[in-house]
């Protein structure tokens, strides 16, 4: 008999087809009255497929009393209630590593775009301004100072790209990373004061909320650029908008926002800001690799009792 799996939120159609072939898959989104469905049939599900932006909150986990495994599409797990899963002994799988390169690529694309004005120059040419005006001078990237907030796997991939641009690299985090090969600066404010560009790659969640504070933005200053490919929650967005509008911050490249998909209206008219719709991992190759891992995590759990890539700290209490 096939294991009964609930799907919460959207996943790639090819993954959905694969899941439906191997499991008895039910999509919560198809149910006209999801709470009533969960009340009546919630106890039938042993597995849950979700994604980083959708997650699994305490109410959903509680509505699935037979749940044994969650397989999440994404590296972020700030929307999964791990206190609940640990207490219930539920295994939680996610999709780290396979997206490092593409997220780092996009961080660098945003950094280059803000500094060199690629999107702004494109708008300039398209609106026919070239014959009549000179495009503004932009900011050099090569050889500048890059600060990385959170030198995890994605942060290290950003550092590898920066090395190719001859940049000086430093980072901060909870503690120095062994053999990092880059200078550790102990606080985000000091790192921002040192850096020309500050790239945020730290995990989201309560412990990193507003780590990029008003003080950090002040320290980065009117010539500094912030790039965020982590989570909107890491940056004090109200302070960021104010600093950008008042030109107390040089620029920003943002793939993530505090209330996605809402983007602060004040950012839309700023030429020193490049905006992206939370797409850092969104290449065909990477999304396919993530989909494969979502499937493999479930399969490994049902075949061998453990997911292939377990969310740190999610291991059930023994
Ligand atoms: C992730 O994998 O966490 C991405 O940010 C998508 O949410």
Radius of gyration, in Å, reads 22 Å
Given the C-alpha coordinates, what overall shape results? Answer: elongated
Give the CATH class of the largest domain.
Answer: Alpha Beta
Looking at the overall shape, the CATH architecture of the largest domain is 3-Layer(aba) Sandwich
Q: Can you describe this structure?
A:
- The protein is of the alpha/beta class.
- The protein has 2 domains: 4-98 and 285-304, 3-Layer(aba) Sandwich (Rossmann fold); 100-275, NAD(P)-binding Rossmann-like Domain (Rossmann fold).
- Helix content is 35%, strand content 15%.
- The protein has 11 helices and 12 strands.
- The chain has helices at 13-22, 34-41, 58-62, 82-88, 100-116, 118-126, 153-164, 188-194, 214-220, 237-245, 284-304; strands at residues 4-7, 24-27, 47-51, 69-73, 91-93, 145-149, 168-172, 183-184, 197-200, 225-228, 251-254, 273-275.
- The strands form 2 sheets. Strands 8-7-6-9-10-11-12 form a 7-stranded parallel sheet, sandwiched between helices. A 5-stranded parallel sheet has the order 2-1-3-4-5, covered by helices on one side.
- Strand 6, helix 7 (153-164) and strand 7 form a beta-alpha-beta unit.
- Helix 1 (13-22) packs parallel to helix 11 (284-304), helix 5 (100-116) packs across helix 7 and helix 8 runs parallel beside helix 9.
- The longest helix is centred in the C-terminal third of the chain and has 21 residues, at 284-304.
- The chain starts with a strand and ends in a 14-residue tail after the last helix.
- The mean pLDDT is 97.
